[in-house]
Design a protein that fits this description.
The structure holds two protein chains of two kinds. Chain A is of the alpha/beta class. Chain A contains nine helices and 16 strands.
């Protein structure tokens, strides 16, 4: 029996497989398809201080080996989450992590402060990298100073595991990673979606209502792998890798590149039980190669 | 599910019949399935409405318009191949818990697809529905003989090659607005809006099935939203695809 457990800050995961925010609802949407308690963690939909309607339809365009989305953080706000969603999901036997977003520092701080009071939420993922909202979001994550500012402010009110989700839409992601590490982040997760665009040539119009959107899926995996590899070397805090993971092999590549855990995103839309298959596939890989623990392959890339 | 049959019908559509090895789950007309596409060029599943159900042989039919790489790939699967399917998804038409005596089923183009299953369900309960279908030409009104088994079929075509020339909302059938007590419609959005407007003017209950671009099909990704009067943006895949027209913000 191989050991799959891993740690992100003080957060214990039974295995390194998490589901990415915005791709797995609140977990319960997937309960018909798999045993969601087997996951290392579920990162629930981006939550903001106030309710958000998100962007107008159309919000999605399929692209070669990928997709663009422009959802725009549609959610009912943190109070609704606390009153109506948290009671439904708190007893799921895995880590439930809330992805927190905002359009100004005070929004992030207030939302994180409220989530901090929930006993069964052991961590938040601070989203400073959403490309689909006009104010804030990605604006914080593309500059080391503003990224550090928002993380430092949240750190003051949030005393559990603080993960910061990074944008790939930057010149040097390691610079941002080091800045948020310095501001008190316990971990960084990367990559959020890459800014992209799709055009309907027949209609001579953009496909998305917002013109540009966030690209995800297998097409972004090489970029994500490269950024995880660079970042894992640049920071001491654990790195969570995501971007196009569709199989156990994909997940193992991220672990080898230095990720301590991984997130499955777009692949959930194609196979709603994929994350369970990835967990089993990682265990098989470890056994097949004679490893006894997942720790033996984290950052074990031979270069 | 295993492909039992797959045949072209009309100039650009295929009728895909899938068999389930066990007993099929309960399904409501208007619900849909997410079909995994065999082509590796296509990432996402394709949401396809349930066209008909044969419970004796555990068969489900899908009437699929061939529009792009994904649907073309589904048109190419052969008997004996397997297709990974999630079903049934979404909320179907409202006919089990509502008393309907004189249903009018309006379809445009491939939007006729879910109305065969609905017609079968009405026929099973001794109600003979009226079908009113529109298409650009006669060939584009699919599966006419099949629909005639369950109800009366009226048609409009833009070129006048079958039925009355024009759009469904101009058909003489609608001169007598008392003839129907509920309308079920599926087709292109401009047609649905015209039908909804007519139903509202004549105070006839009406529900429409929407076709939005989807990714997950189960309410997780929030891509396929429609704005509603009561709840703002909701997922067409989970809250719909069928909506009572009064919920939609089409009239203001």
């Amino acid at each position: 029996m191989v050991q799959l457990n891993t740690k992100i800050g003080s957060l214990e995961l039974k295995n390194p497989v998490m589901t990415a925010s915005g791709t797995f609802g609140y977990g319960t949407e997937y309960a018909d398809f798999m045993d969601i308690s087997r996951l290392g963690a579920i990162i629930v939909k981006g939550t903001t201080l106030n309710p958000r309607q998100g962007n107008p339809y159309p919000r999605m365009a399929e692209t070669p080996s990928g997709m663009l989305n422009a959802v725009g953080l549609q959610n009912k706000g943190v109070d609704y989450f606390v009153d109506h969603i948290y009671p439904e999901i708190e007893k799921i036997q895995t880590n439930i992590i809330v992805n927190v977003s905002g359009s100004c520092i005070d929004d992030y701080v207030q939302t994180a402060g409220i989530i901090n009071t929930l006993d069964d939420i052991p961590a938040i993922e601070l989203n400073i990298s959403c490309p689909n909202v006009k104010q804030g979001g990605m604006a914080f994550g593309v500059n080391p100073e503003s990224a550090a500012q928002v993380v430092a402010a949240v750190r003051k009110v949030y005393d559990k595991t603080l993960i910061v989700k990074l944008s790939p839409n930057v010149t040097d992601i390691t610079e941002i990673a080091r800045a948020v590490e310095g501001a008190g982040a316990d971990s960084v997760s990367l990559i959020n979606t890459m800014l992209g665009m799709a055009i309907d040539a027949e209609k001579r119009k953009p496909i998305l209502s917002t013109i540009t959107g966030g690209m995800s899926g297998p097409a972004v995996k090489p970029v994500a792998l490269r950024m995880v590899w660079q970042t894992a070397k640049a920071v001491k805090i654990p790195v969570i890798g995501l971007g196009g993971i569709c199989s156990a092999t994909d997940a193992i590549e991220f672990l080898l590149a230095g990720a301590s855990a991984v997130q499955i995103g777009t692949a959930n839309f194609i196979d709603p039980s994929i994350s369970e298959k990835v967990i089993d596939g990682i265990a098989d890989y470890l056994e097949r190669h004679g490893f006894s623990s997942i720790q033996e392959i984290i950052g074990a890339l031979q270069v | 599910m295993v492909v039992a049959d797959n045949n072209l019908v009309g100039p650009s559509a295929t009728l895909l019949t899938l068999q389930y090895p066990g007993e099929l789950p309960d399904m409501v007309a208007g619900q849909f399935a997410e079909l995994q596409v065999p082509s590796h060029k296509v990432l996402l599943r394709r949401p396809i409405s349930i066209h008909s159900v044969d419970r004796t042989n555990n068969l489900v039919e899908f009437l699929i318009q061939i529009v792009g790489e994904g649907t073309k790939s589904l048109a190419d699967v052969k008997a004996g191949d397997s297709v990974n399917v999630l079903l049934p998804l979404g909320n179907g038409f409202n006919y089990r818990s509502t008393h309907v005596a004189k249903p009018l089923l309006i379809g445009g183009g491939v939007g006729v697809a879910p109305l065969l299953f609905l017609g079968q369900e009405f026929a099973d309960h001794g109600i003979r529905p009226t079908f009113l279908f529109g298409g650009r030409t006669r060939e584009l009104i699919l599966r006419q003989e099949e629909f005639l088994k369950y109800g009366d079929l009226f048609m409009t075509t833009e070129d006048g090659s079958a039925g009355e020339k024009g759009f469904v909302t101009n058909h003489s059938l609608l001169m007598d607005s008392e003839a129907f007590d509920r309308i079920y419609a599926c087709g292109p959005t401009p047609m649905l809006k015209a039908v909804a407007r007519w139903a509202r003017e004549h105070e006839i209950a009406c529900e429409v099935s929407l076709e939005h671009r989807m990714a997950c099909g189960i309410g997780a990704c929030l891509c396929c939203v429609e704005d509603t009067a009561d709840q703002g943006n909701v997922c067409v895949c989970k809250e719909g695809p069928v909506f009572e027209i009064d919920r939609l913000k089409w009239f203001n």
